[in-house]
Amino acid sequence: MILRKKFLLGFCTCSIFLIMLMFLTGCGGGNSDGGSGDNPAEVVTGLALLGPLSGAEVAVYQYDDLDNPIYSTTTSESTVISEAGLFDVPENSLQDSMLYVIAISGGQDIDADDDGVIDALPTDNIGTLHMAATGSQLKANTSKGSNLEL
Fold it and tell me: Fewer Cβ in 10 A, N or C end of the chain?
């Protein structure tokens, strides 16, 4: 309960805007046949933005258990801005009606001035970004080719 109150206080007072556009799945290549047996499992793909955040820790929690993540990963690192800061969450780990909290911490902002050019020296991220959404919201636009941006 205390952690939930801390989360709500931190979420409400956070000075970083959380940008939520929506989601992208990694359904394989350019096939439009609805799936052959060799496509990987569907995932929700997110993008951790301040710059993007490269090498940041991502934890997905059920809202009623903020102590134990149901899934953890690290954002991608790249010398190409559009390929850095990405992370995937397997869709089969998300229940449509469940509320989830995604927390992203650490890593480095590789474009702190948001000019679209990777900075000579990345900026350490010392904060944590949070987002709350239901499983169905996280999966909603899997066919539209857009990212969940945090």
Answer: N
